[in-house]
Write a structure and sequence with these properties.
The complex is a heterodimer.
Chain A: E1 3-7, E2 10-14, E3 19-26, E4 32-38, E5 44-49, E6 56-58, E7 61-66, E8 71-76, E9 85-92, E10 97-99, E11 103-108
Parallel strand pairs in A: 2-11
Antiparallel strand pairs in A: 1-3, 3-8, 4-5, 4-9, 6-7, 7-8, 9-10, 9-11
Chain B: E1 4-7, E2 10-13, E3 19-25, E4 31-37, E5 44-49, E6 56-57, E7 68-72, E8 75-80, E9 89-97, E10 102-105, E11 109-113
Parallel strand pairs in B: 2-11
Antiparallel strand pairs in B: 1-3, 3-8, 4-5, 4-9, 5-6, 7-8, 9-10, 9-11
Classes of the chains: A mainly beta, B mainly beta.
């Protein structure tokens, strides 16, 4: 059965800290790995990763994929209170997205 | 990206009634999906909405409970039938954009069944 597992499930940090969120997957017909940020509304797209070892970066956020070890990480540097959200990773297998449980990040001032 | 509009954005529904959620995209898209997110949970795919044919449902979801229409490449509806409190969830429309094969989400429809 296809599955995506995220860790940790929740995380509390202070402003300025750096965090690493983990996502592992076992998906038949894997095509890409996507990261989303969800606040009190629908998920907002962050990154799509298709190739191993190529870092994608957007401001303080970056992500990388390892297709050999079947995992991805999302890094957030110099965290701010506005980064508080649930971060979802999802594997796309051509027909649908399979979501992990999400990591709830709380950034304290 | 695309602009994905969902209506209603929020509703409170009586037990036993049905509600139809609309999803309108500002460009033609190849694939449209409907997801459910129950309180405190991650997203679960209900079905893929197929243009001009019956939707493809995931295990645990049936057409009688969640009928879906997709009359063209920019519009789809999801009906939640004979609602019970267990149907209280966020229902999300999402689309696959051909460029980059990225999936984007609408703002969601928050349903509370009382």
């Amino acid at each position: 059965e296809d599955k995506v597992v995220q860790s940790p499930l929740s995380l509390v940090v202070h402003e300025g800290d750096t965090v690493t969120l983990n996502c592992s997957y076992e998906v038949t017909n894997f095509r890409s790995l996507l990261w989303y940020k969800q606040e009190k509304k629908a998920p907002t797209f962050l990154f799509m990763l298709t190739s191993s070892g190529i870092e994608k970066k957007s401001g303080r956020l970056s992500s990388i994929l390892d297709k050999k070890e079947l995992f991805s990480i999302l890094n957030i540097t110099a965290t701010q209170t506005g980064d508080s959200a649930v971060y979802l990773c999802a594997a796309f297998e051509g027909g649908k997205l399979i979501f992990g449980q999400g990591t709830e990040l709380s950034v304290k001032p | 990206s695309a602009v994905i509009s969902q209506k209603p954005s929020r509703d409170i529904c009586q037990r036993g009634t049905s509600l139809t959620i609309q999803c309108q995209v500002d460009s033609q898209v190849t694939m449209m999906f409907w997801y459910r997110q129950q309180p405190g949970q991650s997203l679960t795919l209900i079905a893929t909405a197929n243009q001009g044919s019956e939707a493809t449902y995931e295990s645990g979801f049936v057409i009688d409970k969640f009928p879906i229409s997709r009359p063209n490449l920019t519009f789809s509806t999801l009906t939640v039938s004979n609602m019970s409190p267990e149907d209280s969830s966020i229902y999300l429309c999402s689309v696959l954009l051909g460029i980059g094969n990225t999936i984007y989400f609408g703002e969601g429809s928050w349903l509370t069944v009382v």
